[in-house]
Amino acid sequence: MKTIANIIRERLNSRYPMGEATALTRIIATEILGISQTAYLLKEDVTLNEEQEALLYNAIERLKKQEPIQYILGYSHFCGLKFKVTPATLIPRPETSELVEWIAADNKGKTVDILDIGTGSGCIAVSLAHMLPMSNVTAWDISPEALAVAAENSRSNGTEVTFGQVDILAHEPQDEQFDIIVSNPPYIKEIEKENMEHNVLDWEPHTALFVPDSDPLLFYRTIAKNGLALLKPGGALYFEINRAHGAETAEMLANFGYKEIELRKDISDNDRMIKATRA
Predict the structure, then answer these.
(1) Are 13 and 19 in contact (CB under 8 A)?
(2) Tell me: the pLDDT tens digits for 159-171?
(3) Which end of the chain has fewer beta carbons closer than 10 Å to its terminal beta carbon, N or C?
């Protein structure tokens, strides 16, 4: 096992910090090559077959191009569940799981109608359907490719979610109404690209990441406006937000007449999520 670890580290150390290279080595060994955790931790000698060697060098070459390990694996873990991810979907983030846990805690034991706008991989919708099994969950996205992945994730995790291809920027609310609307919409400004890591900027879908510098609250404002029709009276709106625009987002929601606005920080102490109630 030591030989394999050395091969991986030697090829990745020039591209990744030592700690990250070590973590990637473990993932390649255990999740791609199928080497047991025990054999890896004990550094046992392992002989690779041709298929494993091909997988090893393919993973190394893709990592050298800064491709996210989740895309190489084809999946990511989120809220205790396993989600397929592709370049058509964002990779689920730990901060987003904090938003899901907030919603689940607020609605434990309840039967609620939930709408997830911009579902991507379906990680929010599927996790909420799993954590709040008496609820009815609907998920919208503009991308048919993302919706196909999300539907597969719903099936593989044993949940029932209703998916729809909807462009929220053009949507006119109909008769549908929900107790909860949740969204992690595009919120990174174009100007912020220069400070982003290449494994995000070069690989993840830009339509799910970026908004114009001139209108960073574009999606929040649109969803908040639609929420006045889509939410039942007393229904709640939950957003993941750009940490630089927490106060601005709260002010926007207040201007639309939302009440009980609560801004929360994530585990890194950044303004990251907000809740508001329709009066």
Answers:
(1) no
(2) 999 999 999 999 9
(3) C
Q: In what order do the strands lie in the sheet with 113-117?
A: 161-165, 136-141, 113-117, 178-183, 231-240, 271-277, 259-265
In eight-state DSSP terms, residue 128 is H
Instruction: Name the β-bridge partners of 83.
Output: 76
| 260 contact partners, CB below 8 Å, separation of at least 6 | 275, 276, 277
**Where is 211: in which H helix or E strand?**
strand 210-211
The angle at the Cα of 87, spanning 13 to 118, to the nearest 5 degrees, equals 125
Q: What span, in angstroms and rounded, lies between the C-alpha atoms of 215 and 269? A: 25
Local confidence band at 1 (pLDDT 50, 70, 90 cut-offs)? very low
Q: Is the pLDDT of residue 2 over 60?
A: no
Cα separation, 242 vs 109, whole angstroms: 30
Query: Which is nearest to 241 in space by CA: 206, 194, 189, 167?
Result: 189
